[in-house]
């Protein structure tokens, strides 16, 4: 396997290595100034509640997400995602309730304020599930996102587990 090493002006180096397989591979760098992203520095997470959380009637409440499926850059903590890389993030959230008598909706909050609301479906015999998604710019220093729920059926508990209720985001492009 052959390599090319490019030394920095003051310290550090970049090593480009060809794979140890037959064939030709191409990596094309953009004709633009900026940071070239590789999978190792593109933050992403997926989190969910491990137990049911109780929600009061007709109040926006932050979802407690205490379990992680993954957190590639350790940017998710205390039910909040604060990425350290500026860019555009695909954000998804879903919440499920077992009640069948009313409705619920959800929202993505950025820096403490709602920026996207979810669908508000009518309950059916299986309960209520609502979701939302958006592409949101996060500055990589102070911006953060959280997941909130509103329901109007008395005090209710969400359906726990990653298949029922989740919040996730992944970088899709740098700033």
What would your notes on this structure say?
The chain is mostly beta strands. It has one domain (45-174): Jelly Rolls. Helices cover 0% and strands 46% of the residues. The protein is built from no helices and 15 strands. Strands 6-3-15-9-12 form a five-stranded antiparallel β-sheet, with no helix packed on it. Strands 5-13-10-11 form a four-stranded antiparallel β-sheet, with no helix packed on it. Strands 1-2 form a two-stranded antiparallel sheet. The radius of gyration is 21 Å and the shape is elongated.
Q: What integer is the average pLDDT?
A: 88
Count of individual beta strands: 15
Query: In the CATH classification, which architecture applies?
Result: Sandwich
Structure classification: mainly beta
The topology string of helices and strands comes to: EEEEEEEEEEEEEEE
Helix content: under 10%
Main sheet overview: 5 strands, antiparallel
- The coarse overall form would be elongated
The neighbouring-strand order within the major sheet is 6-3-15-9-12
Strand content: over 45%
Report how far apart the termini are. 35 Å
Radius of gyration: 21 Å
The number of distinct structural domains comes to 1
What is the CATH class name? Mainly Beta
Poorly predicted ranges = none
Task: Please tally the helical runs, counting DSSP H or I stretches of 4 or more residues.
Answer: 0
What is the third-level CATH name, the topology?
Jelly Rolls
